[in-house]
Amino acid sequence: LGLFSKALLASGLLKHISPLLLSLSSGIGLFTIPFIMLVLIVLAFIGIHPFILIVLLGQLFAATNTVPLPVLAMTLMFGAALSYMTSPFAGMMITTTQFLGISLYELGVK
How far is 102 from 106, CA to CA, in rounded Å? Predict the structure, then answer.
């Protein structure tokens, strides 16, 4: 996957985050699905690649069993698609802005 994701998995940090996600997702119930997509988009804006986020969040939420796995997979893919379209760090966004001659903000947010 990459150095960042392997280091994060090896650090054991995800084991500490998993109980927090379990309590949060059981508390918000059905709103877990938009929460996952929002987390994907926000972290993509920070600069973490959406594919890495799919792997990490998929492992975290699959371990909590709060969302059925097919629903989790569709949620992660839809959130990643939104992240790819709005993240200013995506190669597709940078290339498109160069061709159209507009800013990343105009293309992604407007």
Answer: 6
Angstrom distances, CA of residue 43 to CA of 27, 32, 60, 85, 108 = 22, 16, 15, 14, 15
> What is the model's pLDDT at position 77?
92
What per-residue confidence (pLDDT) applies to 59? 80
Task: Give the separation between CA 73 and CA 82, rounded to whole angstroms.
Answer: 14
Low-confidence stretches of the chain (pLDDT < 70) are: 1-2, 5, 25-27, 29, 108-110
d(CA 49, CA 106): 21
If we measure between CA atoms, which residue out of 64, 38, 48, 41 comes closest to residue 7?
48
Whole-angstrom Cα distance, residue 108 to residue 59? 28
C-alpha radius of gyration, the chain, whole number: 15
